[in-house]
Amino acid sequence: MQQKELEAYMAEPGHHEPVGGGAPTLQDVAQAAGVSRQTVSNVLHAPERVRPATRERVVEFISRLGYQPNRQAQALARSASHMIGCRIRPLTPGALTSMHDRFLHALAEAGRAADHHLLLFAAEDESAEIDSVGRLHRGGAADAFVLYDLTADDQRPKALLDIGVPFVAFGRTDTGADTYPWVDVDNVLGTRLAVDHLVNRGHRRIAFLGWPSGRTIGDRRARGWHQAVESHRLAATCGVLDVRSEDSVQAAIQVTFRLLEHSEPPTAIVTATDTLAVGAMQAAQRWGLEVGRDLAVVGFDDTPTAAALELSSIRQPIELVARQVVTALLGTDKVGPGRKLLEPQLVIRSSSARPASPRR
């Protein structure tokens, strides 16, 4: 059909440009081509079902009208957006790196390998996150969601179960964890590995620099340190060396100074994060100590900062966590109920590789 014919056709009663000058719809194309909506849909998705002459006419009107299929509407019709929703967590002031950023990157890679993509959204708190998840799921923007950084009594899993939203958690609550799918890293084992390593290097005064009590991950890492010093019969020596700090370098420096002022200061420090470990290292250096010789330090998370500073650290298998999360989300996990506790690994570098100094 030539342009003049098209203009004449559009001028006939019942045939018009999109209302309000907006983007043309499938109905506009159907009216212009003189076919049903289903015929236009078949041309787009099953062209073999349409006679060649009709198909050619519909394609021409699609082109002339500039019609663009609504991909989200198509996804909704299939009940599959191929999107995984995840809330963006705020950065921790004073922290060197964010494990959340690393996890999002790994999750995006794992999702892409499974033909899914991330839909990131912001929410002020957990309650707002629940509301956002509900709206996004009802609107078809995402098929399923990932919860991050669960607290001991986190209400998000139960809330999403109640409204029927598919999800998998990275982390787990202290109770009710058998009711929903999750993937977690054994934080208790992580600090146990650090203490075992230091004991094997000859250390007997091993401090713990962790977060204030009440934070699930931090409490589990503290528990691992306590279990390890008790198993090595060092509780009496190390019990007074358990100190807590906010997760910032400056806060860790001040707390480490207090440890070094102790009448029997530690010869080694296990920290709950690499950020705290960097603070401990800086404090030691300002105190005139050589890290790795006079004071051993082991961090947690094995961030790029740890590698750059030759800091021993507990490595979380973040890439494996992300793959397991996506596997559980897509229902392709053929083993187990979708609840997995993964083991961390100790990466030994110069900050703790030497035997304990006999002078200390």
From TrEMBL:
Name residues in a coiled coil. Answer: none
Q: Which residues form the HTH lacI-type domain?
A: 24-78
Q: Which SMART domains match?
A: HTH_LACI
Keyword list (alphabetical) reads: DNA-binding, Transcription, Transcription regulation
Instruction: State any single GO MF term.
Output: DNA-binding transcription factor activity
Q: Does the keyword Transcription apply?
A: yes
* Pfam families (UniProt xref): LacI, Peripla_BP_3
Name of protein: HTH lacI-type domain-containing protein
Q: Which organism is it from?
A: Streptomyces malaysiensis
